[in-house]
Amino acid sequence: MLTPASSYFRHDPFAEWGRLARGMSRAIPQAATGTRTFPAVNVWRDGDMTVLTTELPGVEPDDIEITVKDTLFTLSGERKTPQAPEGAHWHLRERSYGKFSRALQLPYPVDPDKVEARFSDGILQVALHRPEEDKPRRIEIKAA
Amino acid sequence: MSNQVTSTGNSKRDAGAERTGMTRTYRPLTDIIETEQGVSLMLEMPGASPEAIDISLERRILSIRANVPTTRHDGAELAHAEYGEGDFERAFTLSEDFDPERIEAEMRNGVLTITLPRAEETQPRKIAVKAA
């Protein structure tokens, strides 16, 4: 069966991002309040590079784990409950603690050797690059 | 010990935020613990650098503000957004006096911890009554 080329080329792999991101997420109940997905992720793209940013306030960098396999990106970790001294009284408790895990399906495979992750002021930023061999190649047409 | 006096905007967990001018303002999610030594507040303010945080205590009102720059990735466009960015603002009314000189604040991994040691003067003091 032939798929019209026009529809193929017009397909935006990021258009389905939202649906994929929602479908793939699985927040562990203790880490999330209500049905909200944690952690929330913003996705930036620039050609063959994708930058994911997420807010993880109160998480130690050593407690964050990132894995990349083909098109699957996973982010997991734990936000530990702060140690309250004996006899301490909680006046307000709005923050949530515990383990979290998210998986995101990317529109193209990721070069596992070129993943750059940075954590500053509670924000994790991960840059993912498309491997050279996966990039579409322009074919030169020789004159006869 | 503390009551919220102003509820500026919503927290990041809520659907929206208050817009003031061009930037959004969020209410940081907060935990407050009290011990015999004093009170500790922990506020989630991801993206705020320590220099951008402003804390003030005036007439028992503790106000916290932070300006958060909007993320920019040169040449990149935002393809999918699940969270918003903006400033943080919140204020609390303290039920007792704290020495403003002894208040300490530390920013670590996007969480601001404010420690208010109990002022010694506020501890019960027995007043001796002199005989006339």
UniProtKB/TrEMBL annotation, chain A:
Q: Where is the SHSP domain?
A: 32-144
TM stretches of this protein: none
Q: Write down the PROSITE patterns for this protein, in alphabetical order.
A: SHSP
Pfam families assigned: HSP20 (PF00011)
Q: Which InterPro entries match?
A: A-crystallin/Hsp20_dom (IPR002068), HSP20-like_chaperone (IPR008978), Small_HSP (IPR031107)
Q: To which protein family does this belong?
A: Belongs to the small heat shock protein (HSP20) family.
State the signal peptide span: none
Q: Which organism is it from?
A: Aliiruegeria haliotis
What is the name of the protein in this document?
Answer: HSP20 family protein
Q: Which Gene3D superfamilies match?
A: 2.60.40.790
Q: What is the superkingdom listed in this entry's lineage?
A: Bacteria
TrEMBL record, chain B:
Which SUPFAM superfamilies has this protein been placed in?
HSP20-like chaperones
Region Disordered: start-end pairs: 1-27
Q: Where is the composition biased (Polar residues)?
A: 1-10
InterPro entries documented for this protein:
A-crystallin/Hsp20_dom, HSP20-like_chaperone, Small_HSP
Which PROSITE patterns does its entry note? SHSP
- Looking at the record, the residues that make up the SHSP domain are 20-132
Q: Which domain of life is it from?
A: Bacteria
- Record family assignment: Belongs to the small heat shock protein (HSP20) family.
Output this protein's name.
Answer: HSP20 family molecular chaperone IbpA
Highest classification ranks of the organism: Bacteria, Pseudomonadati, Pseudomonadota, Alphaproteobacteria, Rhodobacterales
